[in-house]
Structures are given as structure tokens and as C-alpha cells.
Please model this.
Amino acid sequence: MVSPLAPALARRVSALLAGPSGRPALRAGLATSARPEASPREADPRPPPKESSPSRRLADTVPRSIVDDIFRCALKKQQGVSLKYMMDFGRQVEAAAEEAMRVSADFLHEELPVRLAHRVAELENLPLGLSEKPQVRRVRDWYVDSFCELRSFPPIRSRADVDAFTGLVGQIKNRHNNVVPMLAMGVASLKEDLRMGRAANGFRGAGLTGAPDIHSFLDRFYMSRIGIRMLIMQHLALADDEKGGAGGGAGGGSSSQRVGLIDRRLCPAEVAHDAIQDARYMCSRDYGSAPAVDVYCGSPDLRFAYVPEHLHHMLFELVKNSLKAVADRYEDADDEPPPIRVVIAGGEEDITIKVSDEGGGIPRRDIGRIWTYLYSTAQSPLQVLHPNELESSGDVGVGSTAGAAVLAGYGYGLPISRLYARYFGGDLQVVSMEGYGTDAYLHLNRLADSEEALA
Model:
């Protein structure tokens, strides 16, 4: 199904089809050519562009048929799913594993290229010269390579096809492990260009606060990445469950309670204790010690259906921020620092978790900035981390404390945590009292009926 072409999408697609001069490189109509059967690096008959070339638009690096195919997929509507749907489908896998896994593979075979194409179109048309950053080009190339592999994969008809496709999406997941820090490095480079007045179109400023288009793009891009990885990892987890290799994740929970990544009876207090332990370890490593964290749960038997790794990621980030604020404020004090308080409450619609600290609060002028990318009180790692270091750093994705360490200083923690909360219909809010402390409220949809937030 082809959705109506919105003006913003039309601009992105036009840029996708444009060469370095800005003139259209391809026809604008919907093409009917066959799927590409080879990767873009193998099929392009033209010589590869030199690294010193001032522009490397997609139309100059891959064959026209591939760009045309991306164009068609970028016009299609993305199909969102709910947490409840994922759980119901997981039960079908338990009842009729082989057929259900084929249906899952078929869905990913059709849906993943559409989602990847939407992001490629945006990566080609970013403002202020961000598309020209080498880190952003590398992310774009990862997405294009994954798109081509999925589109060239034959129709899924047999169990052997399902197994081969599962192996392919596993490879794609690994390829995209370091998308977040790689793109963050490109955005950090743009921030430096803005500060020095080197950005495209002569835009100059102290940071990205005057570039709302960049923030809107990053919200859409990272929300899409959360969804893509959720679909892939759910399929991989169901495949492991089918083979009897189900394993636990962050936050405990026995495998019998899990449907792929989803724990049907997740205990938020258990996940909170795990996240607190990880955050206090990082604080102790940086400061020599860590303030205490007290957990209060209205009902010790509180359970709900959720993804433990998502909850761990959000709580780890919130507790880590509170620990740092308190440790900084009381670093030279003789008194013991006050504890951070984590309060968990269950309502009819939401599970709400409040993280409170007495770390001095946030100035009112900075409250809006905490949701912008690259706002951070930690030292930026741009000057000490090279893109090639990310290639061998492993997964810095969901629930990874190593990933949080890599991203510390980029200012991505709170914005991405809010995206995780909103992915299944929740939210994250921060209320601060300068001179005293900060309260963060994490709302999680208990009904599990909200579809993915797609853009």
C-alpha cells in the first residue's frame, strides 16, 4: 500500500534521487523494475568515487535500480505493532512453531526494507551539511547494505528459507550495533562546526539549540532504530525459544514467563535493583564511592508485561544521572550524601517509577535543553574516540552498560530514554527544583495495547 506523499517526504525523496549538482538523477515516477540481485558495492559499473570528493550522494555510489527501489519502499507506510500483538504472536509460536516462524520471517522480509528506506531517504537530506559527515555516510551505507540484502533475499517458502533469513537478520543486527555512537560522532562534529562558524549555509551558533530540524530528525531516526531492533531481536529470540535455547535478559524473569524479549510477568522492582547495581558500579568507578539508593514499591507482587532490557536501559540512565548529581554536589562535603529514592507505583493504566535526588537540581533555563541531543555535563568523547574504535567495541545497544559508557558525554541518555518510554505508549518527564534536587517520572503503559510510535 502506498501512502499519500507528504511534503516533507517528497523533499527527502527528491534529495535521495538528486546528484551532487541537485538536478534529478532519476525519474520521479514509481518504477516497476525488478529487485536488485547484487549488493551495491558489486553491481555498480561506475568507478567508486574518491574519498576526497566534496559530495557522495547515494545516486553517485550505488546503481540507479537500487536507488529507485529505495524510493519505492520509502513511499510505503510502515506497519506498527503493539506489545500485546507481539505477545499473542509469541503464543502462536508456542502452539505451531514452524508456521508461525515463517509468518514472522515473511513480515520482517516485507517490513524491514520499508523502515530502512525511510531512514536512508532522511539521511540523504539532512540540513546544515550533516549528510556530508563521514560518520553519517557510514551509517547510511550500513542501512543501504542491509536494505539490499533483504530485497535480494528470495521469497520465504520452506523451513530452510526461514533459517537462512533468521541468520541474515542476525547479521544485520550486528552490522547496526554501533549506529547510535557513530551517528552521535557525526552530530558532535556538526556541533563543533556550528560553534566555529563552519557549517553549511553560514549557520553559526553555540550548539544545536538553534537547529530544531536536527533534533526532529534524531528523534525519528532513533525511534525507528528502536523499532527495527525490537522486531529483529524479537524474531531472533523466538527462534532461540523454538530451539530450546531461550535465555534470560536484564532484570531476571524465568524463560517460561518470556515471549521472545517480552516478560509477561515482569517485576519492576527486580529490574530496578539490577539497574541500580550497574549504575552504582559506574559511579564508584568514577568517584571512588556511590551514594545509597533506596527502593520503595507499593506492592512487592507488582507485575506487568514489558521488555526487561528497555526498562533496565531507562532506569539505569535515570539512576546514573542522579548518582552523578549527588556525587558532584557532596564530593567535598563532610556529611554523607543523601540517598536517591526510587518509588514504584502501579495504577490501572500505567506503572509509574519516580527517581528522586537531592543533587542540587537543574537551572530553569536548562530544563528544555536536557531533551536536546548533545546537551551534557560530562566531557564529550569526540576528542578521544575514533570511528574505527567503534567497529570492534561490540554492541552498545539496549541495556548495555558498556554502551552507556561509550555514549557518556554525548547527551543522548535522557532523549533516548524518553524514546524508549514512548515506544510502547509511555513517557518520561523531569521536574527540577534548583538548589535542591530533581524528580524524574517514568510512565509505562500497563495495558500493552499501544502500537509502536513510528515516524
In short: Residues 1-5, 19-54, 245-254 have pLDDT under 50 and may be disordered.
